[in-house]
Structures are given as C-alpha cells and as structure tokens.
Amino acid sequence: MDKIVVFETYYNPIEANIVKSRLMDADIQCFLSDENTITLNPLYTQALGGVKLHLFEKDVDLARSILQETIPPLETPEEEEKGEFVCPKCGSHDVGYVQATKKRFGILTMLVSILLLVYPFSVKKVHHCFNCLHEYK
Ligand SMILES: [Zn+2]
C-alpha cells in the first residue's frame, strides 16, 4: 500500500481545486481535505492550516513536474495569408491576418489566464501590414 502524503497546502480553495484538476487530468490520484470547512468559513483557514492536497508519495515527483510544465499555446501559429489584402495606408499587398502585435492581451485577460492556467483564448486578430506595420481590422 502506498503512503499518502500532503503534497501542498493552499489558503485558497479555488487554487487548490485548480491544481487538483490538473493532476487528475494527468491521472494522478489526489484529494483535498478541509476544503469544505474552509470554503464555508474562511476564518478557519489558519486554524486548520489551509486546504491540503493529498496524493500518493510515489506520485510526488510526477506531480511537481506536471505543475512546473509551461502550458503550450493551444493554437499553432497560423499561416499568414499574404496578398489577399491591401494596406489602406501604403497600398502594399504584403498584409497578413495575424494576432495583433500591439496590446495582444489585456492585463485582465492575462491575469485570468494565469489563474486558470490556460492560454488566453480570446486573441485579437488584425490585418497587419508588413510594409509599413500599420494594423487595422
Ligand atoms: Zn502599409
């Protein structure tokens, strides 16, 4: 029988759940304890020592490496469709429909995606002129 250890302690039940689902996705058996008490009464957090994430001792290393993995972008870079559009500013045909280079994501989108551990899903796309760098919709 494998030993079950406390892998990590969280003061935020949401964060604990995010980590838990990531590990479950990777087929690592784990569970949270004291989660309900803390969700119902956050004041008990200190007393109970936070939400504890338990898993098998043998899975600890694997779990750590999974959580350290950087998340690859969901989208592969799209092919630039050159020549289909004309830049309204300089008249060049060297225009691609690409992710906006200016202000790619709002700071809020960034924060939310970091929190949810996902790549920002709403990527703004614009027509980008490779000649004069003008961007338009
Ligand atoms: Zn242009």
Automatic annotation (TrEMBL):
Name listed for the protein in its UniProt record: DUF2007 domain-containing protein
Domain of life: Bacteria
Keyword terms of this UniProt record: Membrane, Transmembrane, Transmembrane helix
Keyword match Disulfide bond: no
Organism of this sequence: Pedobacter cryoconitis
Gene3D superfamilies membership: UreE, C-terminal domain
Annotated SUPFAM superfamilies: GlnB-like (SSF54913)
Residue spans crossing the bilayer: 105-122
Domain DUF2007: 12-69
